[in-house]
Amino acid sequence: MKLSNEQIEALQKLLAREQQRIVLLAHTNPDGDAIGSSLAWASLLRSMGHSVTCIVPNKYPYFLDWMPGIDQVVIFRNEPEKAQAAVAAADILFSMDFNAISRLESLSDTIAANVTAKRVLIDHHLSPQEPFDVQFSFPDSSSTAFVVYSLIERMYGTERISAEMAACLYVGMMTDTGNFSFSFLTPALYRAVAVLAEKGIDIPAIHNNVYNAYTADRARLFGYAIDRKMEIIHDGTVALMSLKEHEMRRFNFQQGDSEGFVNYALSIKKIRMSVMFLAHRKFIRVSLRSRGEVDVNRFARRYFEGGGHHNAAGGKSYVSMEETIEHFKRAVEEYAREGHL
Ligand code: 5GP
Ligand code: MN
After folding, report:
1. pLDDT (tens digit, 9 = 90+) per residue, 131-179?
2. Which of the ligands is closest to the CA of residue 314?
3. Residues 67-115: pLDDT tens digits?
4. Angle 144-155/32-47 helices, nearest 10 degrees?
């Protein structure tokens, strides 16, 4: 990840104006990185005298409820007028941890309506789609939180990172790397973690708050999904799992409960690609994970109108669960025939 002088100067110019009205947007189904990077960046901008609103399209998972400052995040689905007013008045809009406006789903139209605000991207997903006035797009960063950390370090120095900001940044880095086990685990990332540790964050407590905060229903749903709903195809190398709405209701499903399910199938030695289909009110949400060279970003773009990262991507399907699964199986055959699997 290399921050150019031009990029930094362009951002500094935008932030040099006093008391800007700033909105930070994060993606639908915000995760630890979307929330952690937003909260930390919001805190920094507020310390400069700007007025900042963080907006997410829908509720974040309950295991993030403890994060410092999260109670001020505006959830568009719950408070649409408040979110719309903040967006309409914004001088600067930051896109945090996503790079396609479609990832905002129901919030997209509201954003498109503000044509005067400057737009800044802070992200680590592949292939940004919208035009931005300033763009910090680093697909080789393991999280957006690490991009935010690097920006703060370069522009203001790490002295400006408070203990609360450090906890938020750590959550982003920890969750997007699967607790420091996925790709892009660079020396620079560990140096950043060392600085966050110096701020006095309680790493075991953060870990416990995020990973050991599930309900008993969620544990039972997990057992059910693995035992009853996981199918292994393609000579034992591809796993698929699906949950319909009535199954989710049976286990009192809450936003965030399926977190980690799709990753679990990759713990089986031969599995190279794993998919989870989760029924949603209007469509089926598709989550994809892979190991090594198997490119699920490309797979998600091609077959499920989505995208993401090389080894973690997602998309949507607008047909029934049965048809979605058939479509997936045909896609796997095609992808394998072409040598991508
Ligand atoms: P998850 O499976 O955790 O929801 O998402 C995995 C990755 O894929 C994330 O980086 C997320 O941003 C991306 N992703 C998930 N759903 C979509 C989608 O519908 N469109 C795009 N472009 N990316 C997605
Ligand atoms: Mn992220």
Report:
1. 899 999 999 999 999 999 999 999 999 999 999 999 999 999 999 999 9
2. 1
3. 999 999 999 999 999 999 999 999 999 999 999 888 998 899 999 888 8
4. 20
Q: Domain extents for the chain?
A: 5-210, 217-337
Tell me which residues have their CB closer than 6 angstroms to ligand 1.
27, 29, 98, 100, 103, 125, 287, 306-309, 312-316
Q: What confidence score (pLDDT) does residue 154 get? A: 97
Most informative mutation of 105, 126, 183, 287 for ligand 1 (most atoms within 8 A of CB): 287
Q: Do domains 5-210 and 217-337 have the same CATH topology?
A: no
Fold of the 217-337 domain: Diaminopimelate Epimerase; Chain A, domain 1 (3.10.310)
Q: Give me 273's structure tokens.
A: 């690609």
Q: How many CB atoms lie within 10 A of CB 74?
A: 18
pLDDT on residue 102: 87
Q: Which of 25, 27, 141 to mutate to test the pocket of ligand 1 (most atoms within 8 A of CB)?
A: 27
Q: How confident is the prediction for the chain on average, in pLDDT?
A: 96
Here the tokens at position 79 are 């408070």
Pick the CATH number of 5-210 from 3.90.1640.10, 3.40.50.2300, 3.30.420.480, 3.40.190.10: 3.90.1640.10
Q: Cα of 292 to ligand 2 centre, how many Å?
A: 19
Q: Whose CA is nearest to atom 6 of ligand 1?
A: 313
Round to whole Å and give the CA distance between 127 and 104: 16
So what's the pLDDT on residue 75?
A: 98
Which tokens in the block code for residue 100? 């396609």
Residues 6+ apart with CB under 8 A from 324: 242, 277, 284, 286, 317
Overall pTM > 0.70: yes
